[in-house]
Amino acid sequence: MKALQILVVEDDSLIAMLLADTLMELGHAVCSVETTESGAVLAARRCQPDLIIVDGQLRDGNGVAAINEILSTGFIPHLFVSGNIKKVLARKPGSVAIEKPFRESELVRAIQQALEAG
């Protein structure tokens, strides 16, 4: 897998840090870590990431709404991480989603699925 520019949208700072570290260990670059729906939309425009990894529920907004707004200007591969993937999939059926906590191997598999969906 080639190195990707990845936008991480996660409002839990510990999870965001662990996710960013894991992605960098896998050889990817994290172009931004955002904690809100509006921050995610602005960062996607600014960074033009190859992939977005987004929490389904944010303290300020939610990841599904952020992805819907981002995708209104063109497709970007994305995947959801959530403590409740059923809720995410109910709002955005067919999405690539993994449940927290997840293993590195699950993350790698989900990244590949998201890239193939594009």
Describe the structure in your own words:
The chain is an alpha/beta fold. Helix content is 46%, strand content 20%. It is built from five helices and five strands; from the N terminus they run E-H-E-H-E-H-E-H-E-H. It has helices spanning 13-25, 37-47, 63-71, 85-91, 104-117, and strands spanning 5-9, 29-34, 51-55, 78-82, 97-99. It has a five-stranded parallel beta sheet with strand order 2-1-3-4-5, with helices on both faces. The two termini are 15 Å apart. The model has no long low-confidence stretch (mean pLDDT 96).
How are the secondary structure elements laid out?
Blueprint: E1 5-9, H1 13-25, E2 29-34, H2 37-47, E3 51-55, H3 63-71, E4 78-82, H4 85-91, E5 97-99, H5 104-117
Provide a compact summary of the structure.
The protein is α/β, with parallel strands linked by helices and 118 residues long.
